[in-house]
Amino acid sequence: MLKLNLVLSLAVSLASSISFAQTLTLRDAVEQGIANYGNIKAKEYYLQSSLQTNEQVKRDFWPNLNIVAQQDYGTVNGQNGPLYGFGGLGVASSGAPLPEQNWNAAFGALYLANVNWDIYTFGRKKERIELAKSDTKRLQADLGQEQFQHKVKIAAAYLNLLASQRLEKNQQMNLDRALVFLNIAATKVKNGILPGVDSTLASAEVSRAKISLNQARENVKEQNNKLTVLMGIPAKDLKIDTVLVQKTPVQLIPLSSNLIASNPILQFYKSKIDLGEQQLRLSGKEYLPTVTAFGVFQTRGSGFKSEYTSDLQAYTSNYWQGIRPNRQNYLLGLGINWNLTTLARINKKISAQRYTNEALREEYQTAEAQLTAQLDAADVKIQLARKSDMEAPRQVSAAQQAYNQKMTMYKNGLATLVDVTQTLYTLNRAETDREIVHINLWQSLLLKAAAAGDFDIFNKEL
After folding, report:
1. What is the mean pLDDT of residues 308-312?
2. Which of 60, 74, 310, 349 is the most exposed place for a label (fewest CB within 10 A)?
3. Measured between alpha carbons, how far is 389 from 442 in angstroms, rounded to an integer?
4. What are the residues whose beta carbons fall under 8 Å from the beta carbon of 196, sequence distance 6 or more?
5. pLDDT band at residue 446 using 50, 70 and 90 as cut-offs
6. Nearest CA-CA partner of 336 in 270, 281, 288, 268
């Protein structure tokens, strides 16, 4: 017996722990959704990409260092006359201009190192770096507002699932009452106390209750799957915590509309405005010139000897003699590059960016007005929902008493089937109203948190 009791205790303990593990709290749902949801992961990757772009923009202003090694074999016939290497397709062969063509060929080589550096860009370098930083801030704000909105969506889906499960429970209770009612009616009909129509009508009431229960179960499944999608997990039946059914929010005081400025949604709009302003500052610098420092060191080798001009046989086709470097040159310089036609192009680009920035400001103001109105409506909804939440139990109590009274009278032949059915409807509606208005209270608080941009307003009441 001792061993049996021990096994039973372990089994009960294990079952309890499994049941507890399967219960999903709202906080857990939010955490899983933030960690798993695909859109949030995507924006996290976009942010990481932007951070890498910041480093890339900084390195764009490093000096260019090119190392070239070139070995060739060909002729060196020259000719007096102009030549432009259009599109980089010209041949850079050089030699003395000879009276006629010849096909003497030898090896040659060129080795060089080239450095060029835009040492002064009149502020473009700084503005491009700041533009990359502004884009990163925009992506950070975008990630923040996405996470915030997703928390609100998960909480709303959780409340909807909780409400649907409570309504399913109510419909099950309604079906149980209808079955009891049917059994009583069937017994009385069988004993000849009541006409057969009572049993038929009671059976119809049971069928109606079953249909309502099936509809409630369908809604539960729909809300359940919506929540699993937002949590980023495979579709499965969730067992959620029902503590919110017995709990009522405490802190329901109105908030100042000034808090809306910190709303992550508005912060995202503001980051877009800041990015546009930074783009405008960069555009204002693009018409300025660029000062570039450069330096080249090169060494050449050739199979053509120095006396080749007077002696066309003074060359060698030996590969190693042709590619061995024997002449060196260096060059240092400072240049300025200014495309004057850029002035006309940049003016229109600046005008376009200014219009874009004005559009972004209008979007910000529209969003701010919407959130302010939403916050005001949320405070009113909370007050009305709280009053309704206080009335709902009274309605259920009165409906329960009326139902019990009519059922007792029906059992004793003092009430009709219609009287009992009417109180059955009233009780079912009262129980449904109780669940809906209580969940509405939490949903109103969530609406307030969404408008204020502070999820903790809702989260701290859990």
Report:
1. 83
2. 310
3. 11
4. 189
5. very high
6. 288
Measured between alpha carbons, how far apart are the two ends of the chain, in Å?
A: 44
Look at phi and psi of residue 419 and say left if phi exceeds 0, alpha if psi is from -120 to 50, else beta.
Answer: alpha
Question: Which residue type occupies 129?
Answer: I
For the chain, residues classed under CATH 1.20.1600.10 are 30-60+127-287+341-462
Residue type, 278: Q
Q: The domain at 30-60+127-287+341-462 falls in which architecture? A: Up-down Bundle (1.20)
pTM of the model as a whole = 0.83
Q: What is the CB neighbour count within 10 angstroms for residue 20?
A: 9
- In sequence order, the 6+-apart residues with CB closer than 8 A to the CB of 147 are 34, 40, 264
Query: How does pLDDT run across 268-279, given as a tens digit for each residue?
Result: 999 999 999 999
- What the block records as the tokens of 89 is 């397709």
The pLDDT of residue 342 is 83
DSSP for 92-134, written as a single string:
-----B-SS----EEEEEEEEEEEEEEEE-TTHHHHHHHHHHH
